[in-house]
């Protein structure tokens, strides 16, 4: 593959990853804002507390989407480590996201329903940049090309061995 083809291939791969991340993230934003408004208006909790609950619910939703859709082809060898890293980086994102909401609500006194939703959304946007970088770099790491090739070869070898050792049926008349 030429250098230009390699660059085009990598850009295409990154584009697909960003699109899948965006699809899951977009659905997660809807979950986040929906839960935020539901909790805020039905329970009377303070704005930032409602934001934290909504973020926690969307973190769970997003993990499922990222693991089984966006990064389903990534290394799965250590799920407990992956989940721990995901939760750790998500906690940082939670602080970023709700920190923006906190500053708007308590720093500037912007606490109307519209203002809270605007700053909740802005916080999600800032935190998303951090989450995209951290998830792809540390949580859902790509398998090195050599390991992928070895896995493919072992799958093919075991498939060939299965077909070679399968009993051949003959019909006699």
Automatic annotation (TrEMBL):
Keywords assigned by UniProt, alphabetized: Membrane, Transmembrane, Transmembrane helix
Topological type in the membrane: Multi-pass membrane protein
Species of the source: Streptomyces fildesensis
Localisation per UniProt entry: Membrane
Stated name of the protein: GtrA family protein
Stretches assigned to the GtrA/DPMS transmembrane domain: 20-140
InterPro entries: GtrA_CellWall_Glycosyl (IPR051401), GtrA_DPMS_TM (IPR007267)
Family membership noted in the UniProt record: Belongs to the GtrA family.
Superkingdom of this protein's organism: Bacteria
């Amino acid at each position: 593959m030429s250098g230009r083809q390699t660059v085009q291939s990598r850009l295409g791969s990154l584009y697909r990853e960003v699109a899948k991340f965006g699809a899951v993230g977009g659905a997660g934003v809807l979950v986040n804002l929906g839960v935020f408004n539901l909790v805020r208006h039905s329970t009377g909790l303070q704005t930032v507390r409602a934001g934290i609950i909504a973020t926690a619910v969307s973190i769970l939703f997003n993990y499922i989407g990222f693991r089984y859709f966006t990064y389903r082809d990534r290394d799965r060898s250590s799920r407990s480590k992956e989940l721990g890293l995901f939760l750790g980086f998500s906690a940082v994102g939670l602080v970023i996201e709700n920190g923006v909401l906190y500053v708007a609500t308590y720093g500037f006194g912007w606490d109307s329903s519209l203002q809270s939703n605007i700053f909740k959304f802005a916080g999600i946007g800032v935190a998303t940049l951090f989450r995209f970088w951290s998830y792809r770099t540390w949580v859902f790491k790509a398998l090195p090309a050599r390991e992928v090739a070895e896995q493919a070869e072992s799958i093919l070898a075991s498939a060939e061995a299965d077909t070679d050792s399968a009993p051949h049926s003959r019909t006699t008349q």
